Amino acid sequence: PVPGPVLGIESSCDETAAAVLAPDGAILAETVFSQTEDHARFGGVVPELAARAHLARLPDLVAEVLGRARVAPGDLGGVAATSGPGLIGGLIVGAGYGKGLAMAHRLPFVAVNHLEAHALTPRLPGLLPEGARFPYLLLLLSGGHCQCVAVEGLGRYRRLGTTLDDAVGEAFDKAAKLLGLPWPGGPHLERLAGEGDPSRVPLPRPLMGRAGCDFSFSGLKTAVAQAVAKGGDRADIAAAFQASVAAVVADRARNALLMAPGATALVVSGGVAANTGVRTALAWVAETAGLPLVAPPIRLCTDNAVMVAWAGIERLRGGLTDPWDHAPRPRWPL
Ligand code: KG4
Ligand code: ZN
C-alpha cells in the first residue's frame, strides 16, 4: 500500500505540470502550465527556452498543488517525476526538483518513463467508466511519439509498431505550416479541414494495406507541399490530409489488434487523440473488433502530471522505487 498522497511532476517537453493524487488514484489537485506561447514565434519547441521556463515555473506549481490538496511535503507517500524520454534540460529540472524534495523529506522517489505514464493513464480509477484492464492496445499519437503498444501488465509493454519518420502530430504540424497555419497546427488544420472536401485532392495513404503497424508520414507531407504549390484549395487539402491520416491510423490499428490477441480495449492517447476524424475512424475499428474505444479526456491525453503521479502509484504499489541519484534519460524506450 502507498503510505500517502503522491506528487507527480512533468517537464519532458513544453508543459510544466504538477499534480497530487491520493493513494487510491483520486486527483486531489492538478495544474498544467503550457509554454506554447513562448515557443510559437519559433515555430517549435526551443529546448533551452523550455528548460528555463520549467525552472522558473515548477517551484510555484508544486507549492500550488500541494496547497490546494492540503498536503504538507513531509506527508507525501512518494514523489514521481518524469525522468525520460524527452528534452534533457527539462528532465534535469523536473526530475532534479523531485529528487531534491524526496531526499529532503526522506520520501520514496519514482523515476517515471513518460511513455509508461501515457500507457497507464487509462487505468486511472474513477475517470473512465469502461476502465482498462490488462492487456490492452495503446495507440500513442502525439507530437513526439507515434506507436502501437501492447500493454500487458505493469512494466510489460510490447512495442508493435512505430513511425519510420515523423510522428503523427509532427505530420499535422508540418502540413499545417505548409498551409500557412500557426504552430502547433493540429487543431487549426482540423478546423480548416471542416470547410473542405477531401475527395477533391488525391493524397497518398502511406503503408496502408501493408502488414504490420508501422507508420510513415513524410511522403504524405511532400504530397501536401505539392498540392499547395499547384494552388489547390487549402481547405480541400486540409480535409484530404486529415482523411488520409485517419485512414492510415485506422488501418495500422486494425493490424495492431491482430498482433495483440486478448486485448480488452483499444486505447488512444496523445494530443492527436483530440482529432475528431482520427477518433471517429478508430471508433469504427474498435466497434468492428467488438472492443471499447477508450479515449481519456483530452487534458489527460496531452502531457500532464496526473499520469506521472498515477504511474508513480502503480510502481509504488509494485514496490518499485528509484534511488535519489537516478539520472534522467533523454532516450528511454518502453
Ligand atoms: O501529446 P501532445 O500534447 O504533446 C506531445 O507531443 O507530447 O501532442 C501535441 C500534438 C501536436 O503535434 C498537435 O498539433 C497535435 O498533438 N494535436 C492535434 C490536435 N490537437 C493537438 N492534431 C490533430 N488534430 C487536433 N485536434
Ligand atoms: Zn507525451
TrEMBL record:
<keyword id="KW-0963">Cytoplasm</keyword>
<dbReference type="InterPro" id="IPR017861">
    <property type="entry name" value="KAE1/TsaD"/>
</dbReference>
<keyword id="KW-0479">Metal-binding</keyword>
<feature type="binding site">
    <location>
        <position position="190"/>
    </location>
    <ligand>
        <name>substrate</name>
    </ligand>
</feature>
<feature type="binding site">
    <location>
        <position position="275"/>
    </location>
    <ligand>
        <name>substrate</name>
    </ligand>
</feature>
<comment type="similarity">
    <text>Belongs to the KAE1 / TsaD family.</text>
</comment>
<dbReference type="GO" id="GO:0061711">
    <property type="term" value="F:tRNA N(6)-L-threonylcarbamoyladenine synthase activity"/>
</dbReference>
<feature type="binding site">
    <location>
        <position position="118"/>
    </location>
    <ligand>
        <name>Fe cation</name>
    </ligand>
</feature>
<protein>
    <recommendedName>
        <fullName>tRNA N6-adenosine threonylcarbamoyltransferase</fullName>
        <ecNumber>2.3.1.234</ecNumber>
    </recommendedName>
</protein>
<keyword id="KW-0012">Acyltransferase</keyword>
<feature type="binding site">
    <location>
        <position position="186"/>
    </location>
    <ligand>
        <name>substrate</name>
    </ligand>
</feature>
<feature type="domain" description="Gcp-like">
    <location>
        <begin position="27"/>
        <end position="310"/>
    </location>
</feature>
<comment type="function">
    <text>Required for the formation of a threonylcarbamoyl group on adenosine at position 37 (t(6)A37) in tRNAs that read codons beginning with adenine. Is involved in the transfer of the threonylcarbamoyl moiety of threonylcarbamoyl-AMP (TC-AMP) to the N6 group of A37, together with TsaE and TsaB. TsaD likely plays a direct catalytic role in this reaction.</text>
</comment>
<dbReference type="InterPro" id="IPR000905">
    <property type="entry name" value="Gcp-like_dom"/>
</dbReference>
<dbReference type="GO" id="GO:0005737">
    <property type="term" value="C:cytoplasm"/>
</dbReference>
<dbReference type="GO" id="GO:0005506">
    <property type="term" value="F:iron ion binding"/>
</dbReference>
<keyword id="KW-0819">tRNA processing</keyword>
<feature type="binding site">
    <location>
        <position position="303"/>
    </location>
    <ligand>
        <name>Fe cation</name>
    </ligand>
</feature>
<feature type="binding site">
    <location>
        <position position="173"/>
    </location>
    <ligand>
        <name>substrate</name>
    </ligand>
</feature>
<dbReference type="GO" id="GO:0002949">
    <property type="term" value="P:tRNA threonylcarbamoyladenosine modification"/>
</dbReference>
<keyword id="KW-0808">Transferase</keyword>
<feature type="binding site">
    <location>
        <begin position="140"/>
        <end position="144"/>
    </location>
    <ligand>
        <name>substrate</name>
    </ligand>
</feature>
<dbReference type="InterPro" id="IPR043129">
    <property type="entry name" value="ATPase_NBD"/>
</dbReference>
<dbReference type="InterPro" id="IPR022450">
    <property type="entry name" value="TsaD"/>
</dbReference>
<dbReference type="Pfam" id="PF00814">
    <property type="entry name" value="TsaD"/>
</dbReference>
<keyword id="KW-0408">Iron</keyword>
<dbReference type="InterPro" id="IPR017860">
    <property type="entry name" value="Peptidase_M22_CS"/>
</dbReference>
<feature type="binding site">
    <location>
        <position position="114"/>
    </location>
    <ligand>
        <name>Fe cation</name>
    </ligand>
</feature>
